[in-house]
């Protein structure tokens, strides 16, 4: 564990020599991120960023080209071969919360390659679930999202489970 | 002679009318949907079967309490279809790869596909259905007489029926959240809740572009086909799949002609029947009576006429 961390710090220092801006941000890397955008129905998700850095090692696994690392995906290489680190590395820097509103659809550039860009929620879920299902991480809805009272009402679960069906409304859902 | 001329004129007139009518009806060609029509691209490779769309639909459309909680996965043990209590349902399909190995479960959301040329609309004799410019196929329950013609006509087996209502049973189906969302430019409730962004909302023509681009970019992930691009004349809801479409519950035998094309020809003859038959049979009746009145003489007269021709 520590060896990996040391290696990582070493890597970051190496990168600092090559690309100073990237190193500047590396110092601001959050250890934990509180995800609250689905707060209407669910308790907040405390994302352990530090743990994922240790496990995944390669920032580009989640952050694509935004950390300034070498791009591998042949679809991305076409444009991002030489693009450096972006100003905002966090997911929300590129993935907007609302992508299907009338305003968002009006502003959509139909000639843009990224016309099909995921919303923030889609990016989180596809990123997390895609990796978790391969690496054995948690994939059930409630492994990450504990239902609030409002959420239970929404899903007719828990106390709000249909009475007549004799179903307990198990929380193990996906 | 005069009667014969009258008859001939009737025939010519009738034929001309029929041709005129049919030219108009058949000349309509295929309707590609309204230019600004909206749609939803459903990417089955992304769905994890969380059933959030079902819950969102239930709340948005104020539908009755479900039989089981919306986070209960046991419902996947059987194949469901939309009903009066659920305008959308998710089913699970076990797929097979080409080599026969299990391809893993694929989840498929079912709802009204909002056809460009809806068969339900065509079949409705009280005109309860409307295809809006936004692409939604909506219906007026106050006009619906509950005949269930649309249930038979729908190629996707979508409309449900309020069997629970003893006195005023009507057809019930997904309306693309038209009243509460779509007409104000907002995406339907199921799209908004979907965590995996299985559902992409946008202009139908953009969604087709997006769909083809996903296939082009990651050809290993998808079957090279967008279901609904052309099926039965095209639908507002479009599907991408990683498994062959027939393995995940799609009817791939329907062809690309709108359902109305099957009946257009027949319906074209209806005005002809109405316009010509009364005159034709009146003519026959008069002719038959003339023979009776004139007896053998009339018959001979007709024979001579034939001989001349």
* Average of per-residue pLDDT values of chain B: 87
Helix share bin of chain A: 40-55%
Main pleated sheet of chain A: 2 strands, antiparallel
Largest sheet of chain B: 3 strands, mixed
- Pick out the low-confidence regions of chain A: 10-25, 166-174
The strand order across the widest sheet of chain B is 8-1-9
Q: What is the count of DSSP helices of chain A, taking H or I runs of 4+ residues?
A: 9
Topology:
The complex is a heterodimer of chains A (174) and B (309).
Chain A lengths: L1 H17 L1 H7 L5 E4 L9 E4 H8 L3 H4 L10 H7 L21 H6 L12 H16 L5 H4 L4 H6 L20
Chain B lengths: L1 H25 L11 E6 L8 H9 L28 E8 L5 E9 L8 H5 L5 E3 L5 E3 L9 H5 L6 E2 L9 E2 L16 H5 L5 E5 H14 L19 E4 L20 H48 L1
Parallel strand pairs in B: 1-9
Antiparallel strand pairs in B: 1-8, 2-3, 4-5, 6-7
Helix pairs in contact in B: 1-7
Give your account of this protein's structure.
The complex is a heterodimer of chains A (174) and B (309). Chain A has 174 residues and is mainly α. Chain A has nine helices and two strands; from the N terminus they run H-H-E-E-H-H-H-H-H-H-H. Chain A has helices at 2-18, 20-26, 49-56, 60-63, 74-80, 102-107, 120-135, 141-144, 149-154; strands at 32-35, 45-48. Chain A has a two-stranded antiparallel ribbon. In chain A, helix 1 (2-18) runs antiparallel to helix 2. Chain B has seven helices and nine strands, in the order H-E-H-E-E-H-E-E-H-E-E-H-E-H-E-H. Chain B has helices spanning 2-26, 52-60, 119-123, 149-153, 189-193, 204-217, 261-308, and strands at 38-43, 89-96, 102-110, 129-131, 137-139, 160-161, 171-172, 199-203, 237-240. In chain B, strands 8-1-9 form a three-stranded mixed beta sheet. A two-stranded antiparallel ribbon of chain B has the order 2-3. A two-stranded antiparallel ribbon of chain B has the order 4-5. Chain B is elongated. The two termini of chain B are 13 Å apart. The interface between A and B is large, with 35 and 39 residues.
